[in-house]
Amino acid sequence: MPFLDRLQHWADVRPDSTAVVLAGQRLDWAGLRDAAADLVSAAPAVTVLPADNSLAFAVEFAAAVAGERQCAVLDPSWPQQLQDAISGRIAATFPPDPSAGLGLSGRPGDGPGDGLRDALMDGPPASPFLIGLTSGTTSVPKAFTRSRESWRISFDASIEFFGLTAEDRTLAPGPLAASLNLYALAECLHAGSEFHALKQFDVGDAHAAVSHDGITRLVLVPTMLRLLSERGLAGGVDASGIRSIVCAGSKLDARTLEAARRWAPNATIFEYYGASELSFVAGAGLRPGQHPQLGGTGIGKPFPGVEIRILDGSGAEVPEGADGNICVRSGMVSDGYLWGDDGQALQSFDGWYTVGDQGYLSGGTLHLLGRRSDMIITAGTNVYPHEVELALASVPGVASAVAAGLADDLRGQRVVAAVVPAQGGITATQLRAGVEDVLARNKRPLEYFALTELPLTDRGKLSRQLLLDWITGTDPRIRRLG
Questions:
Q1: For the domain bounded by 375-481, which CATH number is listed?
Q2: Does domain 4-370 have CATH number 3.40.50.2300?
Q3: DSSP secondary structure string, 400-459?
Q4: Which of 213, 390, 440, 475 is most solvent-facing, going by the fewest CB within 10 Å?
């Protein structure tokens, strides 16, 4: 039961209360239930649904997962050729079967509308309902499936961990095509909590929602949090009513955290580590007035119901404090891949699952180091860029940082780092002094650069390879610091 049975519950007990506000349009619980129920009979066994931020998407998504149906949510910004390729792959994977039922189809009831309501019920717990897609590229992304039971368990864990209540009003200002925001929508439908999203991310629209819609909870990525916080402070936008901020995608840097604490002084700021294939793994909440540990790799304790082990490449457990594959065991793990599995994306060591992220455990706290493929090997020492970047991001005057391994005849690779200054300039001497007490000597960058902007892919992701290309190609967006 991901959320449809709970949607029915809230529609019965609070029919006229607002359920969702999408792109400025509102729908109450009874209206959402009835609109979704009307669509169920026409919904196929597998729906390919582009996720625009609209009321129509919320209704269509609910109908698309009713009974034993499945839904693949596409990013509408992906090229049409890519969307067509995904649709073709799904059609080939799930050929139509006229004799197959969809489960829990509408049937006559005791009163008006009972048949439609019956049609909007959830299917068996172990049945798959969501076809997840890795972030879009120029090739067809990998596809994995999630069972209804895995999301039910995830809801229980996240609602307990984040303290979500039916009185909260959640704003997720990003695209619903992103798993972070799609999950927040379903989580709120499960919890009976009012959900808000914008037509598209806009700082002014987000501030208006905070000011006028009584938003108590934000779900977003760090870049959005920084923009909302810094511009909110400059514009005098009151965020004192926000009680929790859930941030995912990357660890919060010192500048973003400071701005968020000033803008939303009463909010607990949650950070967590997870993966689409694993769901929630570990996290922590920074309470109002609590001092953060800046520059560290610590993510937090395991989520409720999650066990964590650090295993080496053969599946053997490593000693505490030693790094290796972050492996988890929980009821939230996905069912695996429909296509695109290269044997490395989601590995299992006797029931312990990993996506290849590296880290270590210390005192029960998970420390995240990054992907093994990003690791820098310099003079026989393994260095994870993520660890270097976190250390640099804690240095006063640094807005953002990126590190990589540059080819070196003597060391194999040497650690280099580039920063976007927060204000004014910054020197290599200041950066060296800033990481001296945080990074071991053999992990410290040997060269520093200043950037006018971060090296990002066309999908907005940090690219360490692009940084190296800028360095070797003397790109004007980067200059060496003496």
A1: 3.30.300.30
A2: no
A3: EEEEEEEEETTTEEEEEEEEEESSS---HHHHHHHHTTTS-GGGS-SEEEEESS--B-TT
A4: 440
